Each structure stands twice: as structure tokens, then as C-alpha cells.
User: What shape does this take?
Amino acid sequence: MDEFTDQDLTGARFEGVTLRETSFGETTFEGARFRRVRLDHTEFRAATFHGARLLGVELVDVVISGDVSNVVVNGVDIAPLVEAELNRRDPERAAMRPTDADGFRAAWDIVRRRWDDTVARARTLPDEMLHASVDGEWSFIETLRHLGFASAAWIERMVLGEPSPWHPFDLPWDEAPGWDGIPWDRSLRPSLDEVLAVRRRRQDVVSEVMATLDDERLAATVTRTEPGWPSAEGLPVSECLSIVLIEEWEHRGFAERDLGALGAPGAPGA
Assistant: This one.
């Protein structure tokens, strides 16, 4: 098997080439042109398609999961249609885009309540199954660890100014570049109760921020330039809080889906 690692193939031309079962990781195709190619049964994870144009293509039995914005299919922007349908299926989803302090408090109350239901559902499974991956996704325990990382990053570090709020259980996203001093150990196998103890403390911190939030604070900005992540200047507090809400909402949906695949009784709570 040929391997191409850390090479610059800018401007290369592939014609009549077979690349079946190949793997591309951390590879840049920016500005590339694909003509008369077959992408059947391919898989893209953590990929960006900003400004991409797919012309004269056939999209049949295709599954797309991710952020959809300004996606025009046959002259129709499908993003508003997708948003409307998702909100129709679950009306509480619309609350995850709040615009004022009261809206943020209401949204946070929703995600905490619904996560309580999801954790109760997870407890119906043997502990070992909570470490199981479904279709290569994070296990239930890893999902909780990642949400702990998210709230530490965007609330404790960015909003509250704690430069290093990390816990050994914290788990960044898989494609993160890695940073000195930030834990990232997927080999850990803490119990559900151990992870929940950390998570509940983090949830309580978010709840305290939400409880004292007003529209003036929501409109304020924060700057963190000390080493670590996130690092940003003039970031709106509202954006930090929104990131946490969306992370909580989306990952709960993934968790419910995978709990069902693992055999947990009950349907996802509404």
C-alpha cells in the first residue's frame, strides 16, 4: 500500500486513477476540481465544503448531518426548509436560538431537563455498554466528557475568565489540534457516576451564569488571549452561551440515537 504523508501535491493531475478504499486525513482539497469522478459509498467526517459547487451531480441515498446554511439545491435554498422541519418535529428545538436573557435561561432549563431524562435512560443499560461506540461515534461516557470540556471552555474560560478550568476527564473534539495543558485521553474509562459528578458541577456553573444574566451582560464581549483554547478577542457573551446550548442539544440527540441502537428502552424524550 502506497502512503503519501506530509507531501505537497499542489497542482497534481489524476486521470484514470483508481482510489478505491483510500483514506484521506488532514488533507486539503481547497480549489480542487473533480470531473466525472465516482464518490459512491464514500464517507466524509469533519469536512468543510465552504463555497463548493456540485453541478450535474447525482445525489441518491445520501445522508448529510451537520451545519447547513445557504445550501442551494436546484435553485432552492434548502437550509430554511430543513430548519423548519426540524423545529416542527421538536418544537423545543426553536428555543435553542434565544435572543435575550430570559430566552437563554429558558433554553438552558430545557436542555438540563432533557439531559436528566437521557441519563435516566442510559442507566437502564449495563455500565460496559455506556463505553460502547455506535458507528464510530463517541460512547455515551465520552459524550458527557466532551460536554464537560465545552462548558469549561466557553463558560468557565471565556465568560468567567478562568485560564485553565480543565478536568482530567475533559475530552476535546477528535479533530482538535491539541494544546499543552489541556487533557485529551480517550483511553480513560470513568464510570457514569464519576463523569456525572464532574458534569453536574459544570452544569451548576452554567446555571449560575444564566441566573444572573441580563441583556446588558449578554451583549457584552469577552477577550481571552492567554495560552490555551479558546483564545479570542471581542467575542460576544451571547455567542459563548449559544455554543454551549447547541453542543448540549445536538449531542443529546446523538446520544439518544445511539442509546436506542444499544437497546435502551423508551423513545427519545420530547
